[in-house]
Amino acid sequence: MVKIVVYDNSLTYLKSMKTRIQTFIEKAQVNMRIGLLTTQFKKILEYVETDEALSVYILDVNYKTACLNGIQIAKTIRAKDRNAYIVFSTKDKASVYQAMTGLIRPSGFFTKPFDKDDLEILMGDIYRDYLNIMGETSNVFHVNIGTMIYAINYDDILYFEACQKKIYIHTLNQRIAYYDCLANIEKMLNEQFMRCHRSYIVNISKIKEASFTLRILEMMNGGKINISRTYKDTIRKRLKL
Question: What CATH number does the domain located at 140-239 have?
């Protein structure tokens, strides 16, 4: 379960966000729900102290209360909840740099008035990340395309390929494309997968042949994957060759 918390000074904005978030949850059929919609900092603190669910906090960067703005409030949340997803919203694009500094580690940023597609993509990205963290014990990889989230068994994946800002998941029967980076994916996978090149992560169990002279891995589907010098020795040890 992922809960969503929205903190803003506008009741109209909170009402609009509630409608958009509920629409996304129903449309995408995800295990998320609204935990809190508030204009009060005190309620945010009470929520952080008492609720143990993984939460997404959507905060107005420029909303000031009790001498604290959205960024300072985010720092307070981060100090109490290291795993929270923090998203900033603002009308002032100049606030982006300020929100990206420090130890907040924001998960997203969008300007007001928000675009419903941007909100849905952001929520989808966060939920996919949550599922993949949970999937470390279930051997399933999740990917979101639009508002749809797909589950792919680890054993069905041959390799991940990075090309022109997209990730391509190669299976025996299909190639699935979406936006991400290998550095993020690498953190989510188990030891069944290994980096062999800056553009590839391979499923060790799906390697058909390996040539370290040519620095090539041949996969079960006949695909040829390059081995970079950086990963050559590590791959050899993993394959025990």
Answer: 2.40.50.1020
What tokens appear for 152 in the block?
A: 């792919």
Measured from the Cβ of residue 192, the count of other Cβ atoms closer than 10 Å reads 14
Query: pLDDT for 13-63, tens place per residue?
Result: 999 999 999 999 998 888 899 999 999 888 988 998 888 888 999 998 777
- How many residues are present in the chain? 241
Element (H, E) at 122: helix 116-134
Distance of alpha carbon 132 from alpha carbon 166, whole angstroms: 18
The HSE-up count of residue 236 (CA atoms within 13 Å, CB side) is 11
Q: Any idea which architecture 2-132 has in CATH?
A: 3-Layer(aba) Sandwich (3.40)
The pTM assigned to this predicted structure is 0.67
The domain ranges of the chain are: 2-132, 140-239
Reported as a single tens digit per residue, the pLDDT across 94-115 is 666 666 665 567 788 887 877 8
